[in-house]
Amino acid sequence: MAYYQQPLDVTALPSWQALLQHRKAMQDFSMREAFASDSKRFERFSLSTSGIFLDYSKNLINEETRNLLVDLAKESGLQEAIEALFNGEHINASENRPALHTALRRPIGDSVEVDGQDVMPQVHRVLNQMTDIVSRIHSNQWRGYSDRTITDVVNIGIGGSFLGPQLVSEALLPFTQRGVRCHYLANIDGSEFHELSAKLNAETTLFIVSSKSFGTLETLKNAQAARSWYLARGGTEEKLYRHFIAVTSNKEAAITFGIREKNIFPMWDWVGGRYSLWSAIGLPIALAIGMSNFKELLSGAYSMDVHFRTAPFEQNMPVILALLGIWYGNFWGAQSHAILPYDHYLRNITKHLQQLDMESNGKSVRQDGSPVSCATGPVIWGGVGCNGQHAYHQLLHQGTELIPADFIVPVVSYNPVADHHQWLYANCLSQSQALMLGKTRSEAEAELRARGADEAEVQRLAPHKVIPGNRPSNTLVLERISPRRLGALVAMYEHKVFVQSVLWGINAFDQWGVELGKELGKGVYERLTGWDQPAAEDASTQGLIDFFRGRHRG
Ligand code: F6P
């Protein structure tokens, strides 16, 4: 039986048991000492692929840890799972479908069968459709209702229909073509709509309604608001087709909304929302950076796919990162993981990885419905450096929790200003160094004495100055952000998440947990706006409803 039909209990595997023993032996492991005693530690625990260099030497590991973790991956059937992913098997068991985002970046000539049908011709047909619209907009052939050039594109979508495209189009701003500005409208909060629409001209704005299901409340409400806004500003129903296009797998709903059939770009149920930026959901990216750069993005992701599929686990970047996450989450009790990009252009990567990781691996039952026997996905958080250093890094350095971190930094800046980039890079490195080295009590005391403090003062302040150190981090270095390298980076995190899901036996591709809130939301809405409604299921919710109704009465 396939691995996803009958997942193993990872905690029962011999390598898991061996890791538990090894963890005890590692209790007093010191990274400081490991670096001091092994001049080759950096070479031993670093690797490079697809334009990304990974230094993972600042981790609580030695060769034995890596060997045992790799054993765990092998005993879990990871290689079989990777093949199942790429071959289009129904690894999303609860929804009985494949997860084939990797097909979206495969080159022409490849074939991938889903239930006996090769999907690659459709994939390339949609890429051609995207090429066509991008070139018509960029060459001013596609014009607004008053024949003016399109200058602004608003992507109306949320979750995976927003975060990936926003990350990439904003990260690749140095590659922007022809000055089409991309905006994102995601939340149902009217203030977001108000602030954005105030900057736009209806004559020159194109809306992309981006929703795999075309049933997402926030997106549909915003699409309706955008349509009313367009009509109130001189736009006509007849010319609506020049201002509204859609990306969806629910063509009928998009047509009912009023979008012309030939302006609807397809999505497939074998691509999950948070894995969809490589499909026509990436249209705002292509409009921002042009189709050839979009294809570079795909080829960077493809290069990571090939690496993931073929590299031995010991040298496999997504596998190594996933195993390190398991090491800390399941053997050291870490509950969160920080993503710390030291690059303005990558400032949105934390939000994208939050959805990617937390919506994929925030699960408590295995693929077969049985409860998991260990912790699964961590809380993903973080933000751009150096800003975080002046906000939450204090907790990373001296808080009570162990929080592994990924630092991501380019070597070259697109916008050198004096020596800013040297300082930015230096800060990134010094943060991971400080996490690892820490400051001992005797170092803290010596420092205070050197500053002339008397002994009472030394003893009073020293405990506050001690920094435990020995805190793990990975550093991912890129020459600078390019479509190819960004494609590889995002694909690498997708595969990292997948590897962890396989080892935990969970389904990374469904998201049933988000449904309950949506369902209850309808009942709360009825109670906020209707009359003679039954009381809410609980007094807290009813009390808060009363508060709202009291304010809006009459
Ligand atoms: O509610 C969660 C979710 O379904 C995500 O998985 C998805 O990315 C997002 O909503 C948007 O969904 P859609 O593209 O169907 O509007």
Features:
alpha/beta, 21 helices, 6-stranded mixed β-sheet, 554 residues, 5-stranded parallel β-sheet, 13 strands, binds 6-O-phosphono-beta-D-fructofuranose
How do the helices and strands line up, and which of them pair or pack?
Layout: H1 14-25, H2 31-37, H3 41-44, E1 46-49, E2 52-55, H4 63-75, H5 78-86, E3 113-114, E4 117-118, H6 120-138, E5 152-156, H7 163-171, E6 181-185, H8 190-197, E7 205-210, H9 217-232, E8 244-248, H10 251-257, E9 264-266, H11 283-289, H12 291-310, H13 317-331, E10 336-341, H14 349-361, E11 379-382, H15 393-398, E12 405-410, H16 420-437, H17 441-450, H18 455-465, E13 473-478, H19 483-504, H20 515-529, H21 539-552
Parallel strand pairs: 5-6, 5-7, 7-8, 8-9, 10-11, 10-12, 12-13
Antiparallel strand pairs: 1-2, 2-13, 3-4
Helix pairs in contact: 1-4, 4-13, 7-11, 11-12, 12-19, 13-19, 14-19, 17-18, 20-21
Summarize the structure.
The chain has helices at 14-25, 31-37, 41-44, 63-75, 78-86, 120-138, 163-171, 190-197, 217-232, 251-257, 283-289, 291-310, 317-331, 349-361, 393-398, 420-437, 441-450, 455-465, 483-504, 515-529, 539-552, and strands at 46-49, 52-55, 113-114, 117-118, 152-156, 181-185, 205-210, 244-248, 264-266, 336-341, 379-382, 405-410, 473-478.
